[in-house]
Amino acid sequence: MVALNLPPYDCKTKQVDGKPYIFDLLRRKYVRLSPEEWVRQHIVNLLLTHYAYPKALIRSEGGLVLNQTQKRTDIVVFDRQGQPFLVVECKAPHIPLTQSVFDQISRYNHVHRAPYVVISNGMMHYCCCVDHASSKVDFMDDFPAFV
Question: 126 with 97: CB under 8 angstroms?
Fold first, then answer.
């Protein structure tokens, strides 16, 4: 896999029937390694090790219903009261972070109503603070601190 603009970590990988798998830090099992999964696992590692987000409050590949269609949110971090705190949308490194990716996470966050959203392709990362009352979005210089 390509080197990302994220801190490296000692991930566990293996081959099953000639296909690569990576150990998912949250689900505690090996999952099929795709370029997007490579980014997702690096983001999870970043949240756990560099920002000290509690592992028990992070959900990967969680389901949500949007316009009567089942979707999956890449990463949702919950606050200590169990409310969504941060929603992360991961893309493969070769996928540009265009307006359509911002639109996608906005649709997902319309359901979750988290105060923070992040999009990342492992090379570029955009962190935003969302004020749902005024529909205002402010770009941030870093991931939000977990309080």
Answer: yes
Q: Check: pTM over 0.85? Answer yes or no.
A: yes
Q: Which two tokens stand for residue 142?
A: 């870093």
Q: How many CB atoms lie within 10 A of CB 81?
A: 6
Distances (CA, A) of 47 to 17, 25, 40, 42, 51: 31, 11, 11, 9, 5
> What token pair was written down for 83?
């409310």
Mean pLDDT, residues 27-34? 94
Walk me through the domains of the chain, giving residue ranges and CATH numbers: 35-140 (3.90.1570.30)
Nearest alpha carbon to residue 3 among 28, 32, 39:
39
Token couple for 6: 């994220």
